Amino acid sequence: MDATVWAFYVQELLKYEIDAPSVLLVDNFDAHVSKAGIDVVSEETSALVCQLPTNSTSVCQPLDVGVMGPLKKKITAEWVAQAGVEKQMEVCCSCAQKCRVGV
Question: Is the model's pLDDT at 41 over the cut of 90?
Answer without folding.
Answer: yes
